[in-house]
Write a structure and sequence with these properties.
Layout: H1 2-6, E1 12-16, E2 19-22, E3 27-30, H2 33-36, H3 45-55, H4 69-82, E4 94-100, H5 103-121, E5 129-132, H6 141-146, H7 150-153, E6 164-166, H8 195-208, E7 215-218, E8 222-223, E9 229-230, H9 235-245, E10 249-253, E11 277-280, E12 292-297, H10 298-302, H11 324-337, H12 340-357, E13 366-372, E14 375-380, H13 396-406, E15 409-410, E16 413-414, E17 417-420, H14 428-445
Parallel strand pairs: 3-15, 5-6, 5-7, 7-10, 10-11
Antiparallel strand pairs: 1-2, 2-3, 4-12, 8-9, 11-12, 13-14, 14-17, 16-17
């Protein structure tokens, strides 16, 4: 905050497509999709039109005991999309939708549902949750309790319930020394024996005598706030099978990875994993309005059914739940997302980004480049041979992003990992400019 107060912030006043403009008339490429929310670009005509149509009807009414047309259609479309992947049996299908406000509240709702489900399925058992090291699931108290980033979460320790963690599959900093840097002059070919998946199984087995875990919570394929940690292919499928074998629910936090960021509509489907609960937010409205959803199976929904005097209802709600404007924007965004044109553009952008990122390997400060679909992280290190990180006081990631801003590209670092997550409307030429600017910024700072 002290650093922030020392300088005048960039004040954004308008935008079009992948380009932002500030109050001084300078233009910038939106290289992190306005903190991972914007899918199709700013001021998209179809989403604008959908919002205008909805404004001609109603902006918001309560969803407490009531319903609305756009939210009902949105729930239907989300359910269809969520079951287009590996939901082979009716029991595995996500059938019910609970709307809320943002990613944290979507996870919070999933957590509360899983807790109550576990209590009702096994009375007397104290539900416990397992998450990944470096997990970030939001800033509400339940979501923070599932998080395992000391820098973010330690200060609130006195407010939190305890959850367990297992190491994330951080291949670049593999504790079993099986990391494989991709530099052409320093390849290490060591056979991976999936020790990280073995640690997950050990955790479940150790807990089994105490009643097991109520749920395993994960960000599929890419952990954002942990430092853009990309999970190796096959890891999620393995650990999901372990969790299932031990009777735990699967909670997929698709807040960042959902809606096409990973390549598939939902990242967990790329590993043929169908969760019991799925948290969605960020890109759901195309980056227009705060809105989120928690999708659950019919089995979990049924745990909240009962006579009035049994008080089994889900005691959780939000003033703007199922907001009509958010639902209208989301419906338009989903239509665009599922169009052949958007799918083709995403494939081209993903290939362009992958190709351009290869040029960064020549920089001595680049330790690792991680990409999953249209999510990429470039980890900067003091010594690429030893993977020694920069000291926090050097503020390398922050300074690189400041240098990027001077070159007309806006993004935010996660420590010393530079994030590139462009909107889907980004042209190949704009993607090349983003990476070229990053190359120059890293060379300047490091």
């Amino acid at each position: 905050m002290r650093d922030w107060l020392k300088r005048e912030p960039i004040v954004i006043v308008d935008a079009k497509g992948a380009v932002l403009r500030d109050s001084r008339g300078r233009q910038y490429l939106d290289a992190n999709s306005s903190i991972w929310t914007n899918l199709h670009g700013h001021r998209h005509p179809k989403i604008n039109a959908a919002l205008r149509r909805q404004l001609g009807k109603i902006a918001h009414s309560s969803a407490l005991g009531l319903a609305s047309v756009p939210a009902s259609f949105l729930a239907q479309k989300l359910v269809r999309a969520a079951n287009a992947g590996p939901a082979r049996t009716a029991a595995r299908q996500l059938r019910r939708v609970f709307f809320s406000d943002d990613g944290s509240t979507a996870v919070e709702a999933a957590l509360k549902m899983a807790h109550q489900f576990a209590c009702r399925a096994c009375p007397g058992r104290e539900p416990k949750f397992l998450a990944l090291g470096g997990a970030y699931h939001g800033d509400t108290i339940g979501a923070v309790s599932l998080g395992h980033i000391d820098l973010f979460h330690r200060a609130y320790g006195g407010l939190l319930f305890k959850s367990d963690s297992v190491p994330a599959p951080y291949c670049y900093r593999c504790p079993f020394n099986r990391a494989t840097p991709e530099r052409a002059d320093a390849r290490e070919y060591r056979r991976c024996h999936w020790e990280c998946a073995g640690l997950v199984e050990q955790k479940f087995e150790a807990r089994q005598s105490k009643g097991g875990y109520a749920a395993f919570v994960f960000e599929p394929l890419m952990q954002g706030a942990a430092g853009m940690i990309a999970h190796p292919k096959g890891w999620l499928r393995r650990v999901a099978a372990i969790a299932r074998a031990h009777g735990a629910l699967l909670i997929a936090d698709e807040v960042m990875t959902g809606f096409g960021r990973s390549g598939a509509l939902f990242a967990c489907h790329q590993e043929s994993v169908q969760p019991d609960l799925m948290a969605l937010a960020k890109g759901m409205t195309g980056g227009y309005l705060p809105m989120a959803a928690t999708l659950v199976t019919q089995r979990i929904f049924n745990a909240f059914l009962g006579r009035y005097d049994e008080f089994k209802t889900f005691y959780h709600g939000h003033s703007y739940t199922a907001n009509q404007l958010g639902a209208a924007a989301s419906l338009a965004s989903l239509d665009i997302l599922q169009s052949a044109r958007c799918q083709a553009a995403r494939r081209i952008l993903e290939k362009t980004l992958a190709r351009e990122l290869q040029s960064l390997w020549s920089l001595p400060a680049v330790g690792d480049i991680r990409q999953a679909g249209l999510m990429a992280g470039v980890e900067l290190v003091k010594n690429w041979k030893t993977r020694e990180p920069f000291a926090a006081r050097d503020r390398v990631g922050l300074r690189v992003c400041q240098a990027l801003a001077r070159r007309g590209v806006l993004t935010r670092p996660v420590g010393d990992v530079i994030v590139l997550m462009p909107p889907y409307c980004t042209t190949p030429a704009q993607a090349r400019r983003m990476v070229a600017a990053l190359r120059e910024a890293v060379a300047e700072v490091c």
